[in-house]
Amino acid sequence: MHMLYNSDSFVVVQFDVPAAGEGVEAGAEAALTRGGYEIVDKAARREIFLEGALAQSFREGVEALIRRQPTPEEIDDYIGRYTELAQHPVVLH
Q1: How far apart are CA 67 and CA 70, in angstroms?
Q2: 82 vs 69: CA distance, rounded Å
Q3: How confident is the model at residue 23 (pLDDT cuts 50, 70, 90)?
Q4: Are 83 and 48 in contact (CB under 8 A)?
Q5: What is the mean pLDDT of the chain?
Q6: Could you tell me the residue ranges of all domains in the chain?
Q7: Helix-then-strand count for the chain, H and E
Q8: Residue 45: which of 9, 93, 2, 1 has the closest Cα?
Q9: Cβ-proximal residues to 91 (8 Å cutoff; 6+ apart), any chain
């Protein structure tokens, strides 16, 4: 789990889950079979987990955005497009 982004509006965390029985070998990274991004909308108190093709699309969009050196507002606007899909309320344990 890696926190990638934290603003007043959003938190984005990346999850990498290695394939069963595989670990990191001398300098090599484990093959990934699952993983994705959790996005939390702090104001709406909702979260969404992106995986598969949607996670890949999110990553590619972020990479393109970063190449343009965006403002924090542009980053939040991009992330906000995904949180419109969020249905799960944030619950503290």
Answers
A1: 8
A2: 20
A3: low
A4: yes
A5: 84
A6: 2-89
A7: 2, 5
A8: 9
A9: none
